[in-house]
Recover the amino acids of this structure.
């Protein structure tokens, strides 16, 4: 394969990576937002402080992912966003509400704080459900028929649950004391719906798309592929086992979060395998949708310079704001 | 309603809402750098109070810019899917560079700038503040390259309807870019200057933060007084550049229907597309010709030479007059305000109450001028997406009109509510702002170990 032909592959990998980082990082933000109504007022402040320095940058990964779709695969960008017109709008409204509520809730009149907290929750929920619906529609190749909306609806319910679980284990890692104990309980409650949802969706996906079925259920790759669901199941079971232990309240507070990141990453690998070599399943392959090699090369130069820098200061920023969440001060 | 018009209205609503916030943050980032360096240099705690208060304004404004910016990246696809298919080879890398080099600089360092004081060294914190300011400016650079290229395309060739780049240097330095970029940066400076002056005037009227408010008022008034004549000069150059490259836009701005020599400068008129003429004209004879061609009998091409290829006249004509009107008002207010402030040696109450009230009324004048200016240039580009080469109608999506109308309503309601909330919260914050007493400032400013202890009275997030 020549360099020109491999360019779309590089960009699809980069887009996948951006989307994965987005789901992992904004996933915990949105999860924390959805857990907000279950906490006391003081706990709400700590919860928001735990995501305060990160949410801007986290949301930017979505812009990068969609940006790459726009730049590198313009045909797919047009097709996908026209199909998903309404859920995209709802997701954006949700993200707008969540984002501004984050800032407004501490700067507005105290008497308005409860309303902004409510919008923070509502925005997070709306954005998560819209994202789940979009994922469902996308995986099924925007199919028509009674079963397709049902499939999308199942994901629209499961993804928010998964975000809540992610948010809960993030709080286990970032908080202490009573709030941490609550976070453990929230994680335990969210675990079941996530697992049931994942099992149902895994069973339904091959049934909803013939292309996906063929890619998975053919020997011999079927046996090798079983590593993915097996590892996922294992990680989820270990998560279940360690959550109530004392270690998680102490030194191993990061373990549930890392386990769940692995679950998300594995799910993402499975999704990528299902779709490849398409960018819109059964409609457009990566190469059909790609921009000209000249455009991709120019963009790649910028990518090679800035992505390492972005990764470096993302790590730096997580180190600066590492450890347990404390009150944040402007200054 | 016509889906094309609805799609345009929706994109316009979004971009109008979005531009309000970057037009503040681009300049406010540099203002924060200035406050910070004044505090480091003079150890006057009023500067630290200014830095802290305006950092909060920055955070709030930036958040609104981010959320409306995310929306924009999606609307390219939902509203104009054909644009990227046809012009993606030019627009794609430019948008990509904007996201990569600038957006990440801002969003990545913003956390450290906002919340990192005391957690990182003073040097790193200054560095983070610098990169946030620098990032907003670079962001504006790339977006304006793309916008200017759409106005005055250069450096490309069209093969089978698709644009291909043959020279990036020509694309980036396209004919209108230097003027537009300077014009927009100055507009941001003015927007921020009047915001600072207006908010500080409000604080002085109410007696909040008596040490900080006069200092910020002076910064706002001085920079406004300095920038507005430069802006008028640059705006004139920009207009002449438009006259060379987009004559029909200038014809719409001036309300010139038939090609004529010695065209008047219209102060008021009612452009009528039906009769293709103006009603109720009031103008200065030969003024437009003099300004545009530097010859009272110079020729201005009329709109009739561009039938079906010129923008709707009335909105461009009116938006242009709003922009110029606000600009002249800014000149009068900033110069008289600065003169009054200087006469009082910038000591409290700095300027008379009527002047404070005038400044309060002018708080968001920068928004009005900026948005009016954008309407001139963007509506003035119609009916083209890429001037002269690609029509908006050819790149629109096939989403049904009813769906666009529904989401348009949703966006407009949301944006109006958020705009109201933004102004209300800004007012609330201004009234809550306090000076910082020197001992607290001492503790906050030392950096390192001393600053590890949170400041008493520091604002929780």
């Amino acid at each position: 394969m020549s360099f020109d032909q491999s360019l779309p592959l590089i960009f699809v990998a980069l887009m996948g990576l951006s989307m994965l980082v987005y789901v992992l990082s904004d996933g915990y933000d949105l999860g924390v937002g959805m857990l907000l109504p279950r906490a006391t007022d003081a706990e709400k402040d700590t919860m928001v402080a735990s995501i305060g320095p990160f949410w801007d940058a986290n949301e930017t990964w979505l812009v990068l992912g969609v940006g790459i779709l726009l730049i590198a695969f313009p045909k797919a960008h047009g097709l996908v966003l026209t199909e998903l017109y309404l859920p995209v709008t709802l997701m954006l409204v949700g993200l707008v509400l969540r984002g501004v509520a984050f800032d407004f809730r501490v700067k507005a009149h105290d008497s308005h704080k409860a309303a902004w907290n409510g919008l923070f929750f509502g925005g997070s929920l709306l954005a998560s459900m819209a994202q789940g619906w979009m994922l469902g529609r996308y995986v099924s190749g925007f199919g028509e028929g009674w079963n397709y909306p049902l499939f999308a609806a199942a994901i629209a319910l499961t993804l928010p649950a998964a975000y809540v679980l992610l948010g809960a284990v993030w709080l286990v890692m970032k908080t202490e004391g009573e709030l941490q104990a609550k976070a453990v309980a929230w994680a335990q409650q969210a675990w079941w719906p996530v697992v049931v949802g994942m099992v149902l969706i895994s069973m339904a996906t091959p049934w909803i798309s013939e292309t996906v079925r063929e890619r998975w259920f053919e020997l011999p790759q079927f046996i090798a592929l079983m590593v993915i669901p097996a590892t996922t199941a294992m990680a989820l079971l270990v998560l279940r086992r360690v959550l109530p232990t004392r270690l998680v309240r102490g030194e191993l507070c990061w373990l549930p979060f890392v386990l769940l990141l692995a679950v998300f990453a594995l799910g993402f690998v499975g999704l990528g395998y299902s779709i490849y070599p398409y960018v819109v399943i059964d409609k457009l392959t990566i190469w059909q949708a790609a921009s000209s090699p000249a455009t991709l090369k120019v963009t790649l130069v910028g990518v090679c310079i800035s992505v390492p820098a972005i990764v470096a200061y993302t790590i730096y920023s997580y180190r600066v704001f590492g450890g347990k969440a404390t009150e944040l001060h402007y200054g | 309603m016509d889906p094309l018009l609805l799609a345009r209205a929706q994109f316009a609503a979004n971009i109008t809402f979005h531009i309000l916030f970057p037009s503040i943050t681009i300049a406010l980032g540099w203002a924060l750098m200035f406050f910070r360096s004044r505090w480091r240099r003079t150890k006057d705690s009023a500067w630290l109070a200014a830095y802290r208060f305006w950092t909060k304004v920055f955070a709030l404004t930036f958040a609104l810019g981010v959320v409306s910016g995310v929306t924009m990246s999606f609307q390219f696809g939902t509203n104009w899917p054909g644009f990227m298919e046809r012009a993606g080879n030019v627009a794609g890398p430019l948008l990509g560079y904007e996201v990569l080099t600038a957006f990440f600089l801002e969003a990545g360092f913003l956390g450290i700038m906002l919340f990192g004081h005391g957690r990182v060294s003073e040097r790193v914190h200054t560095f983070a503040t610098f990169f946030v300011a620098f990032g907003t400016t670079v962001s504006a650079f790339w977006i304006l390259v793309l916008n200017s290229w759409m106005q005055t395309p250069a450096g490309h060739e069209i093969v089978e309807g698709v644009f291909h780049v043959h020279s990036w240097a020509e694309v980036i330095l396209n004919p209108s870019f230097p003027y537009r970029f300077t014009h927009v940066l100055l507009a941001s400076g003015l927007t921020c200057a009047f915001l600072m002056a207006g908010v500080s005037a409000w604080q002085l009227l109410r007696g909040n933060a008596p040490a900080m408010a006069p200092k910020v008022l002076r910064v706002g008034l001085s920079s406004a007084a300095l920038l507005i004549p430069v802006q008028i000069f640059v705006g004139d150059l920009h207009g002449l550049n438009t006259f060379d490259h987009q004559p029909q836009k200038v014809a719409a701005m001036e309300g010139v229907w038939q090609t004529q020599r010695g065209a008047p400068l219209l102060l008021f008129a009612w452009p009528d597309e039906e009769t293709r003429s103006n009603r109720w004209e009031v103008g200065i004879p030969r003024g437009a010709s003099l300004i545009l061609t530097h010859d009272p009998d110079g020729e201005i091409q009329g709109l009739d030479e561009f039938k079906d290829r010129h923008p709707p006249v009335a909105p461009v004509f009116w938006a242009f007059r709003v922009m110029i009107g606000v600009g002249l008002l800014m000149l009068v207010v900033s110069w008289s305000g600065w003169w009054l402030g200087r006469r009082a040696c910038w000591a409290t109450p700095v300027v008379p109450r009527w002047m404070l009230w005038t400044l309060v009324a002018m708080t968001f004048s920068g928004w009005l001028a900026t948005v009016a200016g954008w309407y001139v240039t963007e509506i003035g580009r119609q009916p083209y997406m890429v001037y002269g080469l690609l029509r908006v109608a050819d790149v629109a999506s096939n989403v049904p009109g009813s769906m666009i109308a529904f989401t348009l309503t949703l966006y407009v309601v949301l944006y109006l509510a958020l705009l109201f909330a933004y102004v209300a919260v800004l007012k609330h914050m201004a009234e809550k702002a306090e000076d910082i007493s020197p001992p607290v400032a001492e503790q906050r400013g030392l950096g390192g170990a001393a600053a590890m202890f949170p400041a008493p009275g520091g604002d929780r997030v």
Chain B is about 70% helix and 5% strand. Chain B touches chain A through 74 residues (CB under 8 Å).
